[in-house]
């Protein structure tokens, strides 16, 4: 449910003051807290939330109010067309959100194992738009990682199966669970990196299907079943692309979707539109969430509606954007997708653009984990 401008105004006033005190959440505070409680009740119904005791309810209500005020602040600061507000994560603190849905920070180094390619030529002739979702049977449905911090495995699996579908016209879904159970470099549901998944595929000589080896939402240490099922897709290596966004766009348009790792901070509050953040609101160096980059385009200019605290309208320029596939279910964001501004490394999108090279296996020496 969309929040009213009145409620956002109320929350902004709270944020401008000393924050939510216990007295503001009591009946003595008058009708406004009751309005907030009604919105919170609707949130609980929509996302099936319940709390163990009254103290926990009161704590979550305070977090909920803080997050809505934070969303309003982001609405004021964003330079794109994004809308921020209530999401499935509105009762979580920023720390809880990071612990539950991201992975550890990516290392401040270029991965030595990924093949580097001189790909500047791919940026020479880039089409105005590209959306692999529009090609039948190429992009699979949105997954939901739940409480398993396996965005890295899902992004890598999506990358492999998408490229395999493009190359072979065999429309298979590959096993995310195999990447978790058989992973020797990452940490399963406690986080990892996309290259951990690729190393697992190389060492297992391919991946089983999702149908044979289905996702469980948790890992099974020392229960790798890779040898039990036949392989349905293979890779020969994986590639680190240039950090030039024009080059990334050209490569994506020719070869297919790739994985990227971004700073996910703003996604806790994201509803729809194109996020154009500044480095101060979304640090491009602190990347902690892996997703699949499936396309790009440009949102037409026109009249931009003002914030929820102001109903003024102002002209805006056309906005170039990336289209990204997330792993938090289809009810989040734009039916499971989100868009980031294209051209200024928003939220670190150009830091680790990595993709597999799919093909039938060749005999190679086992691959070791990165140091």
From TrEMBL:
Q: Which residues form the Cathepsin propeptide inhibitor domain?
A: 40-97
Q: Which family does it belong to?
A: Belongs to the peptidase C1 family.
Recorded GO CC terms: endoplasmic reticulum
The UniProt keyword set, sorted, is:
Disulfide bond, Endoplasmic reticulum, Glycoprotein, Hydrolase, Protease, Signal, Thiol protease, Zymogen
Q: What gene makes this protein?
A: Ctsw
What is the scientific name of the source organism? Rattus norvegicus
Q: Which PANTHER family match?
A: CYSTEINE PROTEASE FAMILY C1-RELATED
The protein's job, in short, is: May have a specific function in the mechanism or regulation of T-cell cytolytic activity.
- The Peptidase C1A papain C-terminal domain covers 126-357
**What is this protein's name?**
Cathepsin W
Q: Which Pfam families does the entry mention? A: Inhibitor_I29, Peptidase_C1
One GO molecular-function annotation for this sequence? cysteine-type peptidase activity
GO biological process, any: proteolysis
InterPro entries referenced in this protein's UniProt entry, alphabetically: Papain-like_cys_pep_sf, Pept_asp_AS, Pept_his_AS, Peptidase_C1A, Peptidase_C1A_C, Peptidase_C1A_papain-like, Prot_inhib_I29
Entry-linked SUPFAM superfamilies: Cysteine proteinases (SSF54001)
